[in-house]
Sequence to fold (119 residues):
Amino acid sequence: MSNRNERRPDELSLDMKARILQIKWLDGHISQYDFDFLRRKCPCAECRPWIHGNGPEGVTPESVLAATGDIAGPQKVQFTGSYAITIEFADGHGAGIYTWPYLREICPCGRHGQAEKPA
Ligand SMILES: [Zn+2]
Ligand SMILES: [Zn+2]
Fold:
C-alpha cells in the first residue's frame, strides 16, 4: 500500500432491507448505492462493453438497464483482494469487479459525478 489511500473505504455496510450498500470512504465521504443501481452499473465486459473495447461508448445493453439487483444475502458481497468487491446478484450475474475508483466514480450522490466525467 504505497499509493494515496483516501479513495479507499473505511467502512462498508449492507442494508438488506433498504437494499443499500453504503461505503464510508477514508476521506469521510459517504456513498449509498441502491442494489438495482449497482446491478445496472456492473463493470463487466457484458454489461459495459465499451470499457473492454467493444461497442459504442457509454451504451449499456437493454438487458442490463432492465435488470434488478437482488442480492440473496450479505455473503454474496465479497472482497477481491484489497482493491475491489464482487457482488453475486440473484439473477445469477456476478462477473463484475467493482474497484474502489469505479465505485467512487459512480457514486450517486450527485456532488462529484460531473466533475469526474466529461459531459
Ligand atoms: Zn456485468
Ligand atoms: Zn458521492
